[in-house]
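Hi R.,

Here's the chain you asked about this morning:
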Amino acid sequence: MNAMDKIIDVLLIEDNSTETSLINKILDHDKWGVNFNRVGDGMEAMDYLYKKGKYKNSKTPSLILLDLDLPKKNGHKVLKEIKTDEVLKCVPVIVLTNSNDDKDISESYENHANAYIIKPIDFDKFKRDIQCFKEFWFNNVQLPIREY
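And the predicted structure, written out as tokens:
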């Protein structure tokens, strides 16, 4: 069974609705068998992942795309919490951010990010990067499919 034969649950943790729309459009998730969910801040992300409040019926994602510059709880804190939780630590987390700061990159990998992608300013490069991400993570990598 390959990635095209199963539904992949992806959680995008991103506060910028314009970037969310671009990512959503580029991923073209309907054709890839992707259930694409989005939350807009770090606190909401943890509610989603811990199935609290309005997210009590959410599924644990197979993959997380995480921006670092988030309101309420920044991405570094979210990443650290995910990677120290016994259930969530196995979920691949790809940091997708505007920061090219060496400190942000190092801290992300120290907190066990699975990849760090810098969002390019140029739309065509952004589109290519997201398409490469899509090809690699949805077609070449075996992701965990969560039942809980």
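The domain at 7-140 is CATH 3.40.50.2300 (Rossmann fold).

Let me know if you need anything else.
M.
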